[in-house]
Amino acid sequence: MVTPATGLFKSVAFKAESSFGTAAGASGAQYLRRTQSTLNAEAAFFKSVEINLDRQLRDARKGAKGIKGNINGELSPGTYSVFMAAMLGAAASWTTAVTTGAQTDIAAASGPPGTFTTAGSVNFLTLGFKVGDIIRSTGWTTTAAANNARNYRVTGVSATVLTVGTASTGATGQPEAVAAKAAGDAVTIFQAGKKLVTPASSLTDLSFTIEHWHSDIGKSEVFTGCKPTSMALNMPATAIATVQFGFMGQDIVAGTTQYFTTPTALTSANLTAGVNGKLSIDGVGLATVTGLSINVNGNHAVEAVVGSQLTPGVFPGILDVTGQVTALFDSTTLRDAFLAETEVSLNAVLVLTSALNSDFILFNIPRLKFTGSSKDDKSQALVQTLPFQALLNTAGGAGIGSSATTLEIMDSLAA
After folding, report:
1. Could you give the 3-state DSSP secondary structure of residue 7?
2. 231, 295 in Cβ contact below 8 A?
3. Which of 70, 82, 85 is nearest to 35 (CA)?
4. Residue 73: strand pairing partners
């Protein structure tokens, strides 16, 4: 009896390529967490149009071939950071976290809102702190020692003052405040994760080699020239957050041994869920949001050429970022933003636990317009649905996601 392959014994591993379509080296790959990987080879077929007396088709020929499919997963910090970077044209690297270094002139005030104020040893604006960032600090002593173990979300930035709120609620279910302390401690304030934006110049176009290894039947499928061409994030209030990457690639190589030797183990971070974290629109926290989705479409295309069944590339187009917010209909604020074509910002942070220094993933959209507003009708709470179009932020300054980008991502475990 033939033993069929099963998904349980299928592993997926990947590695960035140095040259499009040339398989990455066999060492140094990374196993990938997934709920599903549907990468497969596909090809165009051309049917003859000859008119034959027997009314039958004489031939069909295979044309250009390629790779297409999706990799789906449940969202966790660090797991998909390389694909996110490739999707936004930022190679496989994230920016290094901004830090003040140890300073003795930083004071803390409890507020509300809480603040961290420097007497001038550093400039928060020129260092690169932004509204929407998640920051942490070290070096506080005595009555302010609790500040050392907390995520704070920046709600305002000036040269000398960081205004903050908490990124989530603590174990008590209530937001934790800043512990007040006069200057004098050797305090360091830093971004709690690395950041990713689409660069204003020097965009990169990274491709990957991805292997499906079917260990139960001893079969390998190595897909080369694979580029993430879309990213769909779904953050419902009733389930684990998910991500789906669409891929297009060049070719497949079949084998009977595993191509990638000893890939790095799967990442181990816990999963995110829509109910754990905070969502703000135009800096105002919303407690009525029932779901958020963000979709990034790279508008990639392939071209067939004479003399080869392989495409010479998977060519990127304009990044199109769209999405949708669903929220309980408790006010007309969001509806009116649609009616007036008011531009707003969106900030969503997903944390793993109720710990005040929990790992997290954060998504900033500095400039968007709602493109619709509709409501359901039922006997229970009414829900409004607001699709949106994200736009390039050209304003600059210290606003939410104030980099000149359409989408900004911050990940506490990004490599």
Report:
1. helix
2. yes
3. 70
4. 243
391: left (phi over 0), alpha (psi -120 to 50) or beta: beta
Q: Is pTM, for the whole model, over 0.90? A: yes
* Rg of the chain (C-alpha set): 25
Q: Judge whether 88 and 197 are in contact, CB under 8 Å.
A: yes
What distance in Å separates the CA atoms of residue 299 and residue 316, rounded to the nearest whole number? 6
Nearest CA-CA partner of 304 in 43, 24, 59, 30: 43
Would you give the end-to-end CA distance of the chain in angstroms? 46
The H helix count followed by the E strand count for the chain is 3, 27
Give the up-direction half-sphere exposure of residue 226: CA atoms within 13 A in the CB hemisphere: 30
Give the position of tokens 């929990």: 358
Q: Which domains does the chain have, with CATH numbers?
A: 11-22+30-44+65-93+198-260+269-411 (no CATH), 106-192 (2.40.30)
User: What is the block-wise mean pLDDT of the chain (415 residues), using blocks of 10 residues?
Assistant: 88 97 97 98 92 93 92 97 94 86 96 91 93 93 92 91 78 67 97 89 91 97 98 94 97 97 96 86 85 96 88 93 94 94 93 89 94 95 96 71 80 91
| Locus of tokens 């709602």 | 370
- Type of residue at 104: T
